[in-house]
Design goal:
By secondary structure, this protein is α+β, with helices and mostly antiparallel strands. Helix content is about 50%, strand content about 25%. Strands 1, 2, 3, 4, 5, 6 and 7 form a seven-stranded mixed β-sheet that branches. Strand 4 and strand 5 (about 160-170) form a beta hairpin. The chain binds adenosine-5'-diphosphate (ADP). Its EC number is 2.7.13.3.
Length: about 240
């Protein structure tokens, strides 16, 4: 029990520090966003320059959202859950995600049949998919296949009750994980990416999915790729 308490205190301290860094970082992103906007207002801007600076603004906006996420990590941020169709959200993100993962990775959104609605903050679902896709990208430095799918699935939840969930699967053909890694991936600040990782991606995903009443399963083995399965309670039949 005592060790657990110490762990909680340590986490709190680290969380506060991360939130402080995120706060400063947000200021930096805001300044960059301002200058990118200024470029867009220049007279007789070549169309390409306009497009690219528009992109910069969008990317900085995502960074902004991420820092927001870090700042609120662990706090009970107010959510705006709505009834959403996960397939629509996945589709709307497809081209953005494809750009993000580079062209050595082929992204497929497998959305055959209609799925049930879920009750979730859509910005948080987007953040979740983004985090999972970024991890898949990092796991496939020399390219591979990335598939996102959604379907209804009957499964026993962690309480032993069988229910129908919307299953969102993010599968990659990347490096996979050994057992130690897999046992730790949801711990905040656990990363195998050194300087390049924050270790917050999956901790955030875990928080979002459990707040939506769902749970996560992971299939992964070294060199066998990874599938992250998000089970989110459905609210009605399709
Ligand atoms: P970060 O990406 O900053 O390291 P995450 O919490 O998102 O933080 O991930 C924690 C760790 O889980 C990663 O460092 C990596 O070792 C492992 N991991 C997550 N997703 C994958 C994946 N798709 N393939 C292989 N390893 C993964």
């Amino acid at each position: 029990y005592e060790t657990h308490l110490m762990e909680v205190h340590r986490m709190e301290a680290v969380g506060r520090m991360a939130a402080g860094i995120a706060h400063d970082f947000r200021g930096i992103l805001g300044a960059a966003m301002g200058f990118a906007e200024l470029i867009r207002r220049l007279p007789s801007l070549p169309p390409d320059a306009d497009r690219y600076s528009q992109r910069i603004v969008e990317i900085l906006q995502r960074g902004n959202n991420l820092t927001q996420e870090v700042m609120s990590f662990g706090k009970d941020t107010p959510l705006s859950p709505r009834v959403v169709d996960a397939t629509k959200i996945i589709l709307s993100m497809h081209s953005m995600l494809q750009v993000l993962v580079s062209n050595r990775i082929r992204l497929t959104s497998e959305l055959g049949r209609p799925v049930s609605r879920i009750f979730i903050d859509s910005a948080q679902l987007e953040r979740t998919l983004l985090n999972l896709v970024l991890n898949a990208r990092d796991a496939m430095p020399s390219g591979g296949e990335l598939t996102i799918s959604a379907e209804d699935a009957e499964i026993e939840d962690p309480d032993g009750d069988t229910g129908t969930f919307v299953l969102i699967r993010v599968t990659d053909t990347g490096c996979g994980m050994d057992e130690t890694t897999r046992a730790n991936i949801f711990k905040p600040f656990f990363t195998t990416k050194g300087e390049n990782g924050t270790g917050l991606g999956l901790a955030i995903v875990d928080q979002i999915i459990s707040r939506a009443g769902g749970f996560i399963r992971v299939d992964s083995a070294p060199d066998q790729g990874t599938t992250i399965k998000l089970y989110i309670p459905r609210i009605a039949a399709p």
